[in-house]
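Regression report. Comparing outputs from two consecutive submissions.

Submission 1:
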Amino acid sequence: MVRSALWAAAAAAVLACGTAEASSSVSRPTTLVTRNTVVALAVDGARVAVRVSLKLKSGVVCDSALFWRPGGKVSRIPKRGCDFDAPSSAFDSLTLARTRLVWVDHVYGNFSYCYGPFTATLKALKPVRIPNGVCDRLDGGQDSDWDFAGTGNFWVARSYEYCDDCETGPPNQEDNVKLYSLTGGRFAKLASLPNDTRLEDAEDGQILLRQGATLQVVDTHGKPQASVQLAKPPTAALLSGNDLVAAVAGSLLTYDPATGALRATWAMATGGRFRGLAGGRALYVVGNDLHLLRLSDGQDTVVATVPGLAHRQAHPQLTRAGLFYVAKNHRGGRVTFVPTAQLPA
């Protein structure tokens, strides 16, 4: 087993008052240190968007987002989520594909009011609202909501209505589900989907959807390509290249996304939580241990033990470029990037 000593020499990029210094090399682990609480990560390749949160003395919570390329500078999106008197949150459903970010904001009162979606790029950091009739109350939106998935230049979005008192179907279901592509700053509808259909992942023209215990891979027109029926709903399901992996009952089930054929079943260590998939390897977490499991033969390696490892929204993530993880401390958080060359083959 390889332990966290592998990265004992990690360089640090320190963020304070909107300025930063970063290591000029990405051949070794690099760490971004922030004084704010790290709420969530959105990664693509060797880039990461970091949602951070600061609670003011008044009790108001201010959300911000940072864009970081390890070995390069840190940029802050010029928007903070503390513009409202009512409880609110910004940068919800934060998603990164190449150098473009997309997210929605919410204000909470009698209902959860959705604003956006907004997008920004590394070259144009000022947020721009994507026109739509779904969630922006300023334009008479329908109180629906959004989430997103994508890598590189491939983007998809899902809109839905959250129903906690439906006339038909189970409580707390998601109704009126629609799937869109995001092209040229506009949404183009791909398909209407059955209620409670979730958007799990998207990559290279393939979209992974889930309805209960059924996984479905569809193409860029929403046309089904492959379907997988699981014994129970997975705790996580991800798509990467020629691999589709679902976590069910403590095991990782690997499938061919083109046919839905089962390739192998690999057991995770007790308590394992599936968090990432790239380059023929699955990332899962047990306590503070980060595991990489090779899908070809099931070889399982603990690559680090990280005190204060974040587990929820800011959980570790794996890309073809490397591994990102967050370690929390009493002053904020530390986002570390480990290049693929430093990980077990």
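Submission 2:
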Amino acid sequence: MFRPAVHCPANHSPTVFPMPHLAKILVYPIKSLDGVEVTQAELLAGGALTHDREFALFDHEGNVINAKRTKKIHTIRSEFDLAGRMVTVWRQGESVGLPAQSAYRRRFHLDQDRGALATWFSDFFGYPVLIQQDLHMGFPDDTHASGPTVVSVATLEAIASWFPAMTVEAVRRRFRANLEIEAAPAFWEDRLFAESGELVPFQIGAVTLLSSNPCQRCIVPTRNPWTGDRLPKFQKDFNANRSQTLPPDVVPARFDHFYKLTTNTQVPTSEAGKSLRLGDPVQA
């Protein structure tokens, strides 16, 4: 369990270092589009954070349209007003230097204008697009571990250091975790795993989460999150560095390969309706 570190040199008062705490909460209202930083987020009955992956895009055959399927989606920019239920969308590069009322930027109400928003996406992709909503669990990739994904800030910083000129923000956008923990060491989240099938409880503020499994990654992190261009050797270089990061007390069987990052979680039904807030202490 993590505790505040205390150092007591002779004739000096104890120095208390920061306890691991929740430093960033990100939700992604439309799956595969830009995220929104919030100061607090309530947990839904299905385990997701309110507004996270609340909407997803589908084609006429019912197949999800996401970044795994098409890199073109990376070039859509979006801004959300969650309280006002509004989204502004535009194509990457089209709005540079243009006012907000420009024809290149379109603003839609997520509920009242959903048909018009679907038409915008249909025009963008070149085929009919439907928008679906799920207020119970959203549209997570892992429906068995539908809770928020967790990573330490130091982990993101370490990964950025592996790739020349890559920023922490670029790493954040590639891996799209919901909760970032400050004052925890790099790859701290790897310690939250037991044997396959076992759930490990940990606490963020008043909320208990259950660590389920390390998140297996797809093609998305290999791409520039703004353009969709693929970075050569990203996965190979990531795996080589990642293999050196596992804490000594990690369960090796959970890493049959190293293209995994962030913790997938399950949320006990008792936690539905509770909220996570910036600054909440973390105990694991």
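Expected: both submissions complete independently.
Actual: both completed, but the second showed a warning that disappeared on reload.
Relevant detail on submission 2: Helices lie at 114-125, 153-162, 168-175, 234-242.
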